[in-house]
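Example (one chain per record):
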Amino acid sequence: MRESPHPLTAEDLLRPDNPYRDCELWDGTAVVREAGGGGSDIVNVRVATRIQNYVTTNDLGWVTGSEQGWLLARKPDRVLAADAAFVTYARLPEVPAASFFPCAPDFVVETKSPTDLWTALIAKGGVWMGHGARVVWLIHPGKRLVLVLRPGADPITLRMGDVADAEPVLPGFRVELKALFDRLPYDAKSGDVYLS
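Predicted structure:
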C-alpha cells in the first residue's frame, strides 16, 4: 500500500506524472495490483476472448481487461480494476476519453494469482456486487473452479466438467471449465478452497 498525505482522487490516478501506476484506489488509498502468475493470465485471456467474441457477435456493449479502471464511489474515491469485465451499451453508451468508466460493470471476472488470497478475492467479489455488478466469476486456476456470485443468490461453485454462464447479463453465453483450465497446473493439495 502506498500512503499519501491526503485521500487520493480518481483524477490523481489519471495524472501523467502520478506515482500510483498499477494501483487501484480504495476509499482514497492507493493499493498496488501485483502482477499475476501461475496460469492466471492465460485463464484471463481465455475468458476475455470468449466474452469479447460473444459481445461483438451480439453487439451488446464494452469488454475490458485489467487496465480499465471503474470509478465506483466518490469522496472518498474508489477505483477498481477487474481481470475482465463487461458493461452494456445501455448503461455506458460511449467510452469516456482518458477517464475511468463511471459505473460498475454488469459482469466481472476476477482470477486468483499465486500471490492473491482466495478469501480476499471473494471479498472483492462482494464489493463489486455492492456497487452494482450483477454477475461475478471468481476463478481459482489451481483448484480448477469458478465461484459464481449474483446479488440475492447463493454462490455457485463449478468444477471441471461444469459449464459457467453469465445469466441474466449475457443470455446464452456459456463456457466449459475445461476450456479455461486445459493444460494448466492443478493444485491437488487437500483443503478448503475458501481458505487457500
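Caption: DSSP finds four helices and twelve strands in the chain.
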